[in-house]
Amino acid sequence: MIRYQITDGTFAADPDAWFQRLRRDADFIQIREKDLSTRDLAELVRRVMQYTPVPVLVNDRIDVAIACGAAGVHLRGGSISPTKVKLLAPLMVTVAVHGEDDIKNAGGSDYVILAPIFQPLSKPDTRLPLGLQTLQRLAQRSVVPILALGGITPENAQSCVGHGAAGIAGITLFTDL
């Protein structure tokens, strides 16, 4: 099971505590710190890459990922296509998806992050949870491996994999362990 940690956006508030929450047992770490300037984000990415051997992906900032030598980039919906990213640099690419149409448009990515499977624990979300049956249906149709996100807990993570997910992604999941 792939374990994909997403940071919680609180680096600026308490850098020491933020670093303590980074998991060295994750397979990937996505740095999602939207409030940082480009310079501060790049500095943080470099620090994380020195701090842990876990491959680092940068949230929706291809320029920062390339400049820092990060392993990859995570694209929000509506971003540049994964295929175009890979023409720019040999990056791993993950894409945020919320349904079948999004998955169809994520061709060329290495993984899609499907959300929300359950009600998210880290933030309010107005979208209805997709549930395990939808996860299973989409996993069967997707040519790109799916990582399940949204309300993932140690208790339901294996159910996500049992319903076709290649792994799990989360914020709270990794900070609460």
Notes on the structure:
Helix 2 (38-51) crosses helix 3. Helix 6 (131-141) links the parallel strand 6 (111-114) and strand 7 (146-148). This protein has 177 residues and is α/β, with parallel strands linked by helices. It has helices spanning 15-21, 38-51, 62-68, 82-88, 100-104, 131-141, 157-162, 172-175; strands at 2-6, 28-31, 56-59, 72-75, 92-97, 111-114, 146-148, 167-170. 34% of the residues lie in helices and 19% in strands. It has one domain (2-175): TIM Barrel (Alpha-Beta Barrel), CATH 3.20.20.70. The longest helix is centred in the first third of the chain and has 14 residues, at 38-51. It is built from eight helices and eight strands. The chain has an eight-stranded parallel β-barrel with strand order 1-2-3-4-5-6-7-8, surrounded by four helices.
Brief summary:
The chain is of the alpha/beta class and 177 residues long. It has 8 helices and 8 strands, in the order βαβαβαβαβαβαβαβα. It has helices at residues 15-21, 38-51, 62-68, 82-88, 100-104, 131-141, 157-162, 172-175; strands spanning 2-6, 28-31, 56-59, 72-75, 92-97, 111-114, 146-148, 167-170.
Q: Which residues sit in consecutive blocks of at least 5 with pLDDT less than 50?
A: none
Give the mean pLDDT. Answer: 95
The percentage helix is: 25-40%
Coarse shape: globular
Strand residue content: 15-25%
Count of helix runs: 8
Oligomer: single chain
Radius of gyration: 15 Å
- Give the tally of structural domains: 1
How many strands, which pairing sense, and closed or not: the largest β-sheet? 8 strands, parallel, barrel
Distance between the termini: 16 Å
* Element pattern in H and E: EHEHEHEHEHEHEHEH
CATH architecture: Alpha-Beta Barrel
